[in-house]
Amino acid sequence: MSLISPNFPIGFVHYPEFFNYEEQKELITQVKLAIAEAPFFQPTMPRTGHPLSVVMSNFGPLGWVTDKQNGYRYERLHPQTGRAWPTIPATLERLWFAVSGFMHPPEATLINWYRPETKSKMGMHVDNDENNFNAPVVSVSLGDPAIFRIGGLKRGGPTLPLKLCSGDVIVMGGESRLCHHAITKVFYGESDLVPKGGRINLTMRRVNAVEA
Ligand code: MD3
Ligand code: FE
User: Fold this and answer.
1) What is the distance in A from the centroid of ligand 2 to the CA of 22?
2) The domain that contains 162 carries what CATH number?
3) Average pLDDT, integer, range 14-37
4) pTM
5) How far apart are the C-alpha atoms of 122 and 180, rounded to whole Å?
């Protein structure tokens, strides 16, 4: 079932429990395999070098990275191992074609781990490091539930909350694609899905324009 809220920006769709528990376990297995090849790294803010509260890795031909020196960008190689990112699991690629309405494959799947030890959250931001805003962003939530908040195109306006639970999928297309959003709270310790606890979010994106 998909839910479209009348108060949310046009193009935002929520699929509560798109993946059942067994499928969620399988996705966690895929994440563990990927992390063995491409370990979680600590992203840091451009210029200040201040650490983000989540740790990250990626699947796909491109991975989103950030550090003090070079800031937010997509890279083909892991910042520490210098190796290519693991390929996007078939289950996620199938999800993309099922819900994105975009005929070209995703190029990047960011893996965010919200750790219980650091009580990770994510501040208000816009995803605009891509060169293709025609494609939506597709995200999968796994593990502890969280409060996601979405605002408008401009910073500082009103925001609306949505609780994201394990197995939920959200699609941010249309006008929602460039809206501000944040993870303001994680209910740590509620789920036993993630081996070391916390919440894993997988965010699939198209980075480059589609060639003619
Ligand atoms: C809404 N991740 O990685 S869900 C991110 O749960 C990010 O880890 C959050 O924001 C998380 O950038 C939020 C995904 C999400 C991604 C892109 C969006 C929500 C969005 C773009 C526009 C509006
Ligand atoms: Fe985001």
Assistant:
1) 27
2) 2.60.120.590
3) 98
4) 0.97
5) 12
